[in-house]
Amino acid sequence: MNERKAAGVTDRRLALRNYIKLYLILIRTSIRSRMQYRFNFALGTLLAAIIQLSEFLMVAIVLAKFGAVRGWTMHEVGYLFAVMTLAKTLYRTFANEVHNLERYLVEGELDQLLTKPLPVLLSLMPRGFRLMPGELLQGGAILAWAFGEMLQTGQVTWWAVPQTLFAIVTGGVVLFAIGMATATCGFWTTRISMLQNMTEDAAQTAARYPLTLYPGWMSGLLLTAIPVGLVGYLPALYILRGELGLWVFPVLAAASCLAVLLALRFWKFGISKYQSTGS
Amino acid sequence: METISSRAVPTVQAEREAAIEAVGLCKSFKTPVVAQGRFSGIRSLFSREYTTKEAVRDIGFTVEKGDFVGYIGPNGAGKSTTIKMLTGILHPSSGSVKLAGVDPHRDRLRCASRLGVVFGQRSQLWWDLPVKDSYDILAHMYGVKDTDKARRLGEFAELLDLREFWDTPVRKLSLGQRMRADIAAAMLHDPELLFLDEPTIGLDVNAKRNIRGFLKVLNEEFGKTILLTTHDMDDIEQLCRRVMVIGGGRLTYDGTVEGLRREIGLPTEIKVTYRDGYVLPRQGDDLIIAADSRFAMHIVSRTESTLTVEVNRQEVRTMDVLRELGHWGEIEDVEMREPDFEEIIRRVYG
């Protein structure tokens, strides 16, 4: 009995190693495919950087005019903005195709993935793997600018850097979970872009500002049902303003894991409801 | 947790199982009524209105190992839906599927590694990469050893003429080339069972012949079980030992090609040429009752010296017809034409 159990564990470990190897091969494939259109890649990077920067400039102009938002300085809001951008970049780098699931549902492309001996997410995610240097640069620059100022005034110490990186990773995971749960609705409705406007785009934009800006029910919603508040706002409360406590980090880790597990459950259920298309 | 490596199945059991066993398969699609106007996406999401369409109703059949089955029916009859249920893409609303004893829905990963699937309208190859790169990726995906991969690709390249476009990106292939490349891709991991959904759609005569030849070899020499859907009756006549016809979501026929011909009882055309003309027993009437009134024949066309009649060979022997025709003049030559398969299908589809 024990032997069989041991064999099962080895099996699983072998399978995991196979999956990881395959994942890397598929990512390399995506990059090679994409690099066939170098001009498109270069232009996309440039445009992304410009769009991102202009978005922040809008925020910056408003802040420069009023000085602060509900007691949050321009640099603190810049920090929220940058963390959200980087977390989103992380999510979209690895799981862009989950966000683009609608295309697979409408065109019936998912059929092909379902005939492969791989979990659908594993064949889906590497397909959309893309490097996003524009977003990375812009997010990094704003974060550096915000940190520079706050380090100088002594508002934060260098400890804030690893803490922020941690928050970016858990934030990316939370955004991925939200994206996956939203995409799963597509198995029933096929079209999901409107829903994505709400749960992804609008929610992410809202969480670039301190949640105290919003009425209580809404900030509650953004911390629970669509937990974008966990990405920048909650860690910032501790890292920048010394509120809450160190327990914020284990809570972030647990919450992001829970969110992904719930989303995965939902995803699995959704796939069994997949309707495909006519041929 | 489903794993890649748990692929091994007790072979003794697998030998005894039918290749495909479908029992009482049903699939109905619930489509939400699409709301119109502003925020239609969100409103549709919360809408409780549905239209239900029964695409497949109570289909059951068994396919033995080594069979070559054609699955035909008009557009929208439920062919693709059935194939998608058999391959584990769609979950049936009720009923069950077993492929060599394994449920493709409960055990999708294990089943998928033993199946080859080709959708004529879609490619499983990587669009922007050379053909050979797709094979490398698929070999990794299915855990095919390098030596096996090289040997199989060598065989396929020979049979399907793959070499001419080995290094071409898939997006630049012609439809015929792409289809050949796709079929080879589906066979790379040497599955026992191959599903093809309209593999010859839109191809020219040469490409069709090439693909049929390959499928024949797979079936006859390698003993693969193959199920294909098609609208091309030559595919059926040249390849399939068994035909299943689906209409309106139900299986309306399941048997041999000859059996299908017989069941429909299409008239055979008999054309006789008379040496010195002929005299019909009754003028101006296209339906003629035989002298002993045991059968009737329908006159299709006539000239000075020839007469073409239709008879149903289910009801009357050819000799009786010829004897009757012999009463009207001296017969010089007889030609017979069996009903065309296209014609049969037209009748089946109604």
Main features:
heterodimer, A: mainly alpha, 1% strand, B: 350 residues, alpha/beta, 6-stranded mixed beta sheet, 5-stranded antiparallel beta sheet, disordered N terminus
Describe the structure.
The complex is a heterodimer of chains A (279) and B (350). Chain A has one domain. Chain A has 279 residues and is mainly α. Helices cover 75% and strands 1% of the residues of chain A. Chain A has a two-stranded antiparallel ribbon with strand order 1-2. The radius of gyration of chain A is 20 Å and the shape is globular. In chain B, strands 5-6-7-3-8-9 form a six-stranded mixed beta sheet, sandwiched between helices. In chain B, strands 11-12-13-10-14 form a five-stranded antiparallel beta sheet, with helices on one face. With 350 residues, chain B is of the alpha/beta class. The longest helix of chain B has 16 residues, at 205-220. Chain B is globular, with a radius of gyration of 26 Å. Chain B has twelve helices and 14 strands. In chain B, a hairpin with a 6-residue loop joins strand 11 and strand 12. Chain B has helices at 11-16, 40-46, 79-86, 108-112, 131-142, 146-160, 175-187, 205-220, 233-239, 257-264, 318-326, 341-349; strands at residues 20-32, 50-63, 68-72, 94-99, 115-119, 193-197, 225-229, 242-247, 250-255, 268-274, 287-289, 296-302, 306-311, 331-337. The chains are: A mainly alpha (279), B alpha/beta (350). At the A-B interface, helix 1, helix 5, helix 8 and helix 9 of A face strand 1, helix 2, helix 3, helix 4 and strand 5 of B.
Kindly provide the radius of gyration of chain A, computed on alpha-carbon positions and rounded to a whole number of angstroms.
20 Å
Mean pLDDT of chain B, rounded to whole units? 84
Helix/strand structural class of chain A: mainly alpha
| Low-confidence runs of at least 5 consecutive residues of chain B | 1-14
Q: Note the main sheet of chain A.
A: 2 strands, antiparallel
User: How many distinct helices of chain A?
Assistant: 12
Low-confidence stretches of chain A: none
Structural class of chain B: alpha/beta
Question: Approximately how much beta-strand content do the residues of chain B carry?
Answer: 25-35%
End-to-end span of chain A in angstroms? Answer: 48 Å
Q: Give the fraction of residues assigned to helices of chain A.
A: over 70%
If helices are DSSP runs of H or I spanning 4 or more residues, what is the number of helices of chain B?
12
Tell me the overall shape of chain A. globular
Give the strand order, joined by hyphens, for the main sheet of chain A. 1-2
Number of spatially distinct domains of chain A: 1
